[in-house]
Design a protein that fits this description.
There is one protein chain. The protein folds into 2 domains: 43 residues, no CATH class; 130 residues, no CATH class. The chain is mainly alpha-helical. The two termini are 31 Å apart. A 3-stranded mixed sheet has the order 2-1-3, with no helix packed on it. It is elongated, with a radius of gyration of 26 Å.
């Protein structure tokens, strides 16, 4: 009688790496990611500061009074209040986002330097999947105007972390007698 609950063993093997940790992608990638994050942060912070500074009620009231900004559903006073709130809070939000981007860029560079040092001390070689994922995310953001940019970012991350194909996961049937032992994990060839 066949077992109604087939059992699988997940096996994984590690091949010779060709990704970030192996030197295929140089330290230049670390600097590019850092610079993109820091520059995006600085631009966002500058835009937020400018928007916050432009949140002047009298200036907004003058723009509304001359007809440059108008609304069919709001009175002029309500429109001035709405535009002032949007500019004020939008400026704060952009500035905070910019600062967080700068912090994230610097933190990434510090992480990569520490990670590189620790891996060298331990003699570990192989791709650093966290860094590959971050670089893929940056590619996604940079290409955000393109449809399916997440697919492009994933392709970039996969390309820089590529291997010979043996590092994937595969399933093979395994004879297991007990229902609680249905899933077992194995690493190796």
């Amino acid at each position: 009688m066949s077992d109604p609950y087939p059992t699988y063993v997940f096996m994984s093997s590690v091949s010779e790496p060709r990704g970030i940790g192996s030197g295929a992608v140089s330290r230049t990638a670390d600097w590019v990611v850092t610079l993109v994050a820091v520059l995006a942060g600085l631009l966002s912070a500058a835009g937020g500061a400018t928007l916050y500074a432009a949140a002047d009620r009298s200036r907004i009231a003058a723009v509304v009074a001359e007809g440059t900004a108008r609304s069919d559903g709001l009175t002029e006073a309500q429109l001035v209040d709405t535009l002032h709130g949007l500019a004020w809070w939008g400026g704060i939000g952009l500035a905070v986002t910019g600062v967080l981007f700068v912090v994230a860029g610097v933190a990434f560079k510090l992480y990569r330097a520490r990670r590189r040092r620790r891996r060298a001390e331990a003699g570990v070689t192989g791709p650093d999947t966290t860094t590959n994922a971050v670089i893929g995310a940056v590619a996604t953001v940079v290409a955000s105007f393109v449809p399916f940019s997440p697919v492009l970012g994933g392709a970039v991350a996969g390309y820089i972390g590529r291997s010979d194909g043996s590092s994937g996961i595969r399933t093979v049937p395994s004879p297991v007698s007990s229902p609680r032992d249905r899933w077992s994990f194995s690493s190796g060839s």
